[in-house]
Each structure stands twice: as structure tokens, then as C-alpha cells.
């Protein structure tokens, strides 16, 4: 690009008239498209030809044909105007589209955020909500406006606001409710494998810890069914395949509806949920509407 050099172009209006006439091979139809008179079209094209010192059309009694010069100019001008129209449309869509992007774990989006998504539109009808379900760490400067993260609350370089701590307890289908703690010895235990990053973390709630606190440390805490995806573990328990040590946050709806029950009050506190966003995005309108909505949904530890 030649910065500071003025382009030597004919008037855009004349080029637009030429493109319409060349596309339709009719001054009359071009005039109808542009909502001007046929005389005005003919006059604009004549001025353009005089300016270029080139003949662009061969004029017949009832039709016009492009000259070689017109054939050269038309496709370049047509494609340029098409791209111009597309660019203007994109700019307008970006102006009119207000999208707030919130990311969280696959399980939290599926079990907690997706069922609440309608309330976001109720609170902010001029905004669109995009939920990014991902267990990877998303770039909060480039790929999302805010996140609900699950961890120890330490997020260097980011702003965070605590929402609530998660708790885990045994849950099961009603027909599998054990009559006593000792009945767990014969039960199928359902596990969520936290993976190598948290498998040895004392805050990772696992059956071994819960059974020890319940006085059943002699039970094989590794037996039963194990899943690497938390949603799959929940689905297994809902299907009646065993008793799972599950997040009470993720199965809140199932417990409220009676699909699942919590047979024992003893629970383990685990990691916590935080609203997290980049300090560079703190004043971004999308971040602000997400913050208002998330805090409203989970205010005071409500979950």
C-alpha cells in the first residue's frame, strides 16, 4: 500500500452506474435498479467515458454492448463492489451483534449453566450468550469474556470473585438406597477419575477419603465403576448402576426432583467455583453483563 498517495479514481457514483449497466447490458434496467432516470444513467456513463478517454459501450437501437475496455473494467469493478458490500455487512453485523462469551468446564456448562441460559436472555434481551464448554484453560483475553473456573481460587494475573465451594457425597437412585453404612460393603461404587493432575490432591474428593471418615476404611475404595468424564459418572448413577461420590452442585436438579437421593449426610468439601476474568476485560460491556448475571444466579453461595 502506498501510504499518503492519493488514488486517481473516477467518482464512485459513476463507477456504480457503469457496473449496473454493464451487468444488465441495459441503461433502462440499470436506471430502475438505481432508482434514477435512464437519461441520468446515460449522462453518468458519458461523463465516465470522457474522463477515461475510453469508449465503454457500443450503443445500439435497443441494447448496448461492452467494448473491450468495458469488458476489462467490468469484472474488476463488479468484484470490488461485491467485496465492499460484504465488508459493510460484516461491520454492521458486528455492530449490531452483542455476544457475551462465558467458558466453564464441560460438566458445569451441561448441568448448571445450560439450564439457566434462558434467564440471561430475560435479564439482557439485547445480548446473546455463548457458552464455551471446555476443560482446557481458555485465554480470557482472546477467546472469552469471563470464565467460571473450578479450582483452588488462585488465578495469577486474573481477577476472580468467589462463588461457592463444592461438596461431594454418596448419591444413588432411590431403589439403591443402602439401609446402613455397612451396606456399602456390598454396593457397586461409582468413581470419577480426577486424572494425574489431581489424583493425589487431598482436596480431590474420592471414595477412599469418604469411607475413612465414615469409619469404613477397610472397604476396597478402588472397586466398582470408574469414569474419566464426570458427566458419564453422573449418568451411570442416574441409570441405577451404582452409588456415586458425586458433586452435589452437578446433581442438584436430580436431587431436587427425587431422581437421585443422598442417603448419608456426611460430605466432603472440595474445590470451589470462581468467576474469573482478565483485568483488561473488566470494563468490557460483555464482561460486565456476565458478571451481573453470574453473581445473580449464585449470589451468597446460592447454587
Automatic annotation (TrEMBL):
Keywords: DNA-binding, Transcription, Transcription regulation
GO BP terms: DNA-templated transcription
Domain HTH lysR-type: from-to ranges: 10-67
GO MF term (any one): DNA-binding transcription factor activity
Domain of life: Bacteria
InterPro entries: LysR-type_TF_proteobact-type (IPR058163), LysR_HTH_N (IPR000847), LysR_subst-bd (IPR005119), WH-like_DNA-bd_sf (IPR036388), WH_DNA-bd_sf (IPR036390)
Membership in a protein family: Belongs to the LysR transcriptional regulatory family.
Protein name (Swiss-Prot/TrEMBL): LysR family transcriptional regulator
Organism: Ensifer oleiphilus
